[in-house]
Every structure is written in structure tokens, then in C-alpha cells.
Amino acid sequence: MLQRLKDWARAIRQDVHALYLAARDPRTPWYAKAFALAIAAYALSPIDLIPDFIPVLGYLDEVILLPIAISLVIRMIPPGIMAEHRAAARAAAERPVSRLGAAAIIALWLAALVLLVWWLWPDPAM
Asked: Locate the DUF1232 domain: which residues (predicted)?
């Protein structure tokens, strides 16, 4: 059962990526682009329709509303275009994660933190 949930979550994540790719495709109808971008932005945004700290209802949008919205938008996109972008999203998910890229991002955040502390630290000469 746990494996089925993981597979379902992985499929949802790939569909959101495919929707983002389809929204950038010029062959996708304008109304499908608008809905696809809105759904992808909502899925990736930390802001929820129903805050997660509300018991039971907090995860309602992620578990029920988001998959329904994704399936509706997928129906708006021509099947050939959606299949192409699903394959691209699947290929992107199978690529290895760059540890060097992650290290560079962590180094940038650490540098920003050091500069912020240096900037806010009181000067002993004053």
C-alpha cells in the first residue's frame, strides 16, 4: 500500500512537470496554458487554499482537489502534446541529481548568510 502511494505521488509530480512543459508549448491552446500554469504554480507553491495545520481538512487540497484539477487540465491539452511532455517529464525525473549543483547552491546560501551576519554584527569600535 505504501508503495502504491509513493507511485501515485511520483505520477502526480511528473504530471505537474508535464503540465508546466505543456504550458510553454506553442501548440497548447491558450486556455489550457492558463489553467496549466495556474495548477503548476499552485502545486509548487508553499501557500495552500486550506492551511495544512487545520486537522484533516488541511491536506484536502493536496489529496483531493489538486489531482482533480490536474486531471481536468490534462483533458484540455491535446493527447499527443500531453504524451510528449509526459515522456519529457519522465526522462527528467530519471536523470541523476547533480551533487555539484546542490553544493553550489548551498555554498551560495552560506555565503549570503555570512554576509548578512557580517553586515548586522555590531562594530566594537563604536
From this structure: 32-67
Q: Is 80 among the domain residues?
A: yes
pLDDT tens, position by position, for the chain (126 residues)?
A: 778 878 887 888 888 889 889 988 999 999 999 988 888 888 777 777 777 777 777 777 777 888 888 889 999 999 999 999 999 998 887 777 677 877 888 999 999 999 999 888 877 766
Q: Give the contacts of 68 (CB within 8 A, at least 6 positions apart).
A: none
92 in any annotated domain:
yes
The total of structural domains in the chain comes to 1
Give me the domain span that covers residue 49.
Answer: 2-98
Question: What does each C-alpha distance from 4 to 13, 18, 56, 64, 110 come to in angstroms?
Answer: 14, 21, 21, 16, 38
Q: Which residue has the cell 489550457?
A: 32
> pTM for this structure?
0.64
The answer as to whether 16 is a domain residue is yes
Q: What is the largest CA-CA distance in the chain?
A: 69
Q: Which of 72, 70, 71, 77 is nearest to 28 (CA)?
A: 77
